[in-house]
Amino acid sequence: MQFVDPKNDFAFKKIFCNKTKKEILISFLNSIIPDNSADKKIINYEILNINPLFISATTINNNKILILYKYILNNHNFSIDTNIERIGNILKSNNLEWSYFSLYLNIYVNTATKAIFNSSDSYYNIFFTSDKDTGHLDLKYFDCIIELPKFKKELNQLETILDKWIYFIKNVTNLEIIPKEYESLKEFKEAFTIATQYNWNKNELEVYDYMKIKAWDDMNTLSNRA
């Protein structure tokens, strides 16, 4: 079998934003949330905006989490997305208010060849928002940065669901079959099935190739600006 690359924007959204296979994205998001206690465990979601990808997730206690998902194409040009006006417009177009959400999460996946934070070997980093004057920590807003260049684990070293998702995103194109480490997990079997290139039609593969070329062009443009 040949698998598509989830680091490709079109492929990621086809795999993780599949309305009939919601367990895939729910599993991925629950593996990322730092305090996955009962009130933060996601059980459902709605896509508010596809580009950039904004998700309204619902927890088991009916709390709402606003989630932004983005790739880091070039670590020299990385910055936290703080475009409040754009986010406000997306909420407004969906008839929502900021107060509707109990948590705000930005997820960034570093697909660049070099790490962003050289002072740490951690591939999974959480940053909370604090007031620059008082130092008060606001636990409602946090950023998660997953650094693929730092993730070195092999299949037999995968310990958590997050490990398995990161390995899938980074390495699935190098696999030829579904590894035994994933066979008992329904959401992963579904993800592998969707990622199987044989199951894609001609139009989907053309969009996939276009997004691959676009990502290369964007990376080259950013590198020239660095």
Distance between the termini: 38 Å
The unreliable regions are none
Measured as a percent range, the helix fraction is 25-40%
Whole-number mean pLDDT: 88
**Given the helix and strand composition, which structural class is it?**
alpha/beta
**How much of the polypeptide forms β-strand, as a percent range?**
15-25%
Give the overall silhouette: globular
Number of strands: 6
Q: Over all CA atoms, what is the radius of gyration?
A: 18 Å
Annotation field: number of helices: 6
Report strand order across the widest sheet: 1-2-3-4-6-5
Instruction: Count the domains.
Output: 1
Q: Note the run of SSEs as H and E.
A: HHEEEHEEEHHH
Largest sheet properties: 6 strands, mixed
List the helices and strands and how they pair.
Elements: H1 9-16, H2 22-32, E1 42-50, E2 53-59, E3 64-72, H3 84-93, E4 103-110, E5 124-130, E6 137-147, H4 161-171, H5 186-195, H6 202-225
Parallel strand pairs: 3-4, 4-6
Antiparallel strand pairs: 1-2, 2-3, 5-6
Helix pairs in contact: 1-5
Give a short summary of the structure.
The chain has one domain.
Question: What would the keywords be for this entry?
Answer:
single chain; about 230 residues; alpha/beta; 6-stranded mixed β-sheet; about 25% strand; globular
Task: Summarize the structure in words.
- By secondary structure, the chain is of the alpha/beta class.
- It has one domain.
- The protein contains six helices and six strands, in the order ααβββαβββααα.
- A six-stranded mixed sheet has the order 1-2-3-4-6-5, covered by helices on one side.
- α1 crosses α5.
- It is globular, with a radius of gyration of 18 Å.
- The termini are far apart.
- The model has no long low-confidence stretch (mean pLDDT 88).
